[in-house]
Amino acid sequence: MQRIGFVILPDFQMLYFAALSVFEFANISAGKQLYGIELLSEYGGMVRSSLGTMTETLPFGDPAFDTLLVGGGTASVTASPAVVDFVQRGHRASRRVASICTGAFVLAQAGILDGKRATTHWIAARELKERFPLIRIESDRIFIIDGSVWTSAGMTACIDLALAMVEKDYGADLARSVAQKLVVHHRRGGGQSQHSESLKMDAKSDRIQTALEYARRNLKSQLSVQELADAACLSVRQFSRAFRAETGQSPAKAVANLRLEAARLLIEQSRHPVDVVATETGFADSERMRRAFVRAFGHPPQVIRNNARAEFAAA
């Protein structure tokens, strides 16, 4: 059984217990105890969350775990010397150490992130970079694996981090089973942006939302403005004007961004050949997709795929 130590700080964010649910459902899916979880704090006893609820914890003891997780809160963290010392010892004694959201500040205080790639909640990324300039901050990543050190963005990104750990420990089939039971998308790739295109295009009206949903379901199609306008039951002129007013971009630009987001997900997480990914996401051919990737991400699809696989394999 793998031991997971979860370090809780005062005013911790309750949502980060969702990461622990991933390990719980890994046990359920496997039908046996794969993971054992210990909630830890500096003094033990009850620790108050940002919501005001109390959680029982154990005091720091043996720092050796298979995974030592440090949770964050709703603001940047300054940990006590005792917490920093425990995390430093845990890093040396454990197989891997990880942070969720502003828990990265604790790893940074412990010197664990010096010279490493890391991420945190996008709101806290600038402060983390200013306070700890030796860290190679990648503020738009869902999670990052740099050797034995894992860091994730905030909020629901902790689920993706934990699913990646389950996949690394016991394989993709178990991670997929856990994701299905949790009713979440099977692990978003760490390279995905913290800001999805769907969130950026926050349409207000039902008709524009319907058109966007139609586009997401039919990326393989041409998705002309006429086709989208028909889905919204509007004329082309009415649709184009309303779409730009609600999303801040043209229908063509929105479709291009949705194609890129979907294609990157497939490149990072599937084994489909590049030309198949291009076809499935509506690019005319793999060369056009390659050029779009270079413009948007700075690298062609194969490099992004290789980087994602290398990062995961090295963990």
From TrEMBL:
Q: What is this protein called?
A: Transcriptional regulator containing an amidase protein and an AraC-type DNA-binding HTH protein
One GO molecular function term of this record is: DNA-binding transcription factor activity
Alphabetical list of CDD domains matching this protein? GATase1_AraC_1
HTH araC/xylS-type domain residues: 209-307
Keyword Nuclease set for record: no
SUPFAM superfamilies attached to this UniProt entry: Class I glutamine amidotransferase-like, Homeodomain-like
Q: Which UniProt keywords apply?
A: DNA-binding, Transcription, Transcription regulation
Pfam families according to UniProt: DJ-1_PfpI, HTH_18
